[in-house]
Amino acid sequence: MKIIIGQPRLEQHLLQLEAELKQHPDADVLLFPEGYLNQNIEEACRLAATYGTMIVSGHRKLHERPKDRSIIINKVGDIVLEKAKYTPAEVVEEHGWTISTLLCDELVLQGFRNEKIKSVDMIMHSIGVGMFSEEQYSEWVEEARQIALQHQCIVMGTSHADGSYRDSEISISIAYCIAPDGEVVLASHSDTRTRTILLDKGHTDPSSQKSQKDSVNITIAPYG
Length: 224
Prior knowledge:
Elements: E1 2-5, H1 15-23, E2 29-31, H2 41-51, E3 54-60, E4 68-73, E5 79-84, E6 91-94, E7 97-103, H3 106-109, E8 122-126, H4 134-151, E9 154-158, E10 174-178, E11 184-189, E12 195-201, E13 216-221
Parallel strand pairs: 1-2, 2-3, 7-8, 8-9
Antiparallel strand pairs: 1-12, 3-4, 4-5, 6-7, 9-10, 10-11, 12-13
């Protein structure tokens, strides 16, 4: 599976999303931050279908509380997951993977929770603005690492390239990817380059103590 992790600037339209789709026509999934889609859901569905790429991001329903929603649009433009912030986790089966989402501070306020979910391969974490301190940056990466270990799954996330939390003068953009064994394979700090993540499910020897999830090969480009 080929996943593109983008760190766009906040914008009213989907120009940066479409630019990434054009640049990576063979991508299976595009991961974008919380709230990026705004109210442009119909356009996002059209773009997913046009380019044959699944989109994972977030949007807002301004007249509801909480207003933020995580969303997964499949490659034919259908919404297969839409979840209000701070509600129990949900999963979908796409591209042979069981995929779920986290939305921004759900990571630290409730973690990944739903007793009905027995297994998940990948959790995709859409973050709003950048981290407001070095301490928060370290805390969120470590919290994601613990979730990866607990659920033996890949956890990856991304924030916008700009914007700050409330009145903070600090905004550390972040993109990360953590393997099922807890290895931090990507932890981008104030580096807004688009990342390509290639996932390959390895073939485990039946006599091996390693699980199928642990045998996933993860390649990052550009690395570092």
